[in-house]
């Protein structure tokens, strides 16, 4: 008895783009919106990072002898520190809500359009793990190379004291980074630059340079490494594999940061010293 015939799956096609903004007034408004969203989030971080790297390079101390702490304690009082940490995370993700709200002006289906929904949980998670592996392993080697070349500062992934809430807060901080960077630097920026009629390649270059710029405070090496990560992520998002779904990028970024923030505490000191990690 032969198996019933099934129709072949239709090839994936990208969602139809919104009609490009035509009038000069609407183009100015869209451009102003992009600048405002970035100015309240990653663009602001990029400006501070640029100032920071200039200060580092002109300080008279070699980059290799400088350090950066990613998750610093904000108070010696445990529960006050916890309060500050949670407030910082909550306010940091508000620009994500703002970006999604502005995109929703197009009408229903905004979250589905950028793949910020639960339509494909298994596929999104699998791609997230694959992207994390593809970026994380070379990234560690790139960091070690940057330290050896003297173009990367010593990075301390966490300086939080060991309390019961430390690991959950570090996981939330990782999720915050994943949401903020991937939703704004990839999904939101792609949608809005598409509205302006940008070519895909122009978007990929812009998104990648933006990603690298707000990591400049870590040195030249992390800038270059994050530009590469930006190219991979923004290319994947717009490819037939990524299918304009941002959740795999959020999963991948969160996993990378969880390993960096939480795993940092479990790596032997000898290994950290070999990598030049504080």
Explain what you see.
Residues 1-24 are annotated as: Disordered. There is one protein chain. By secondary structure, the chain is mainly α. It has one domain. The protein is 63% helix and 2% strand. It contains 11 helices and 2 strands; from the N terminus they run ααβααααβααααα. The protein has helices at residues 24-39, 42-57, 78-92, 94-103, 110-113, 121-149, 166-195, 200-213, 220-238, 247-261, 269-275; strands spanning 67-69, 154-156. A two-stranded parallel sheet has the order 1-2. The longest helix is centred in the middle third of the chain and has 30 residues, at 166-195. The radius of gyration is 20 Å and the shape is globular.
Short key terms for the protein model shown above:
278 residues; mainly alpha; two-stranded parallel sheet; 11 helices
Layout: helices, strands, pairs:
Layout (H helix, E strand, L loop, with lengths): L23 H16 L2 H16 L9 E3 L8 H15 L1 H10 L6 H4 L7 H29 L4 E3 L9 H30 L4 H14 L6 H19 L8 H15 L7 H7 L3
Parallel strand pairs: 1-2
Structural class designation: mainly alpha
- In total, the number of domains comes to 1
Cα distance, first to last residue?
66 Å
Shape label: globular
* Strand order of the biggest β-sheet: 1-2
SSE succession: HHEHHHHEHHHHH
Specify the helix fraction band. Answer: 55-70%
Question: What can be said about this structure in brief?
Answer:
With 278 residues, this protein is mostly helical.
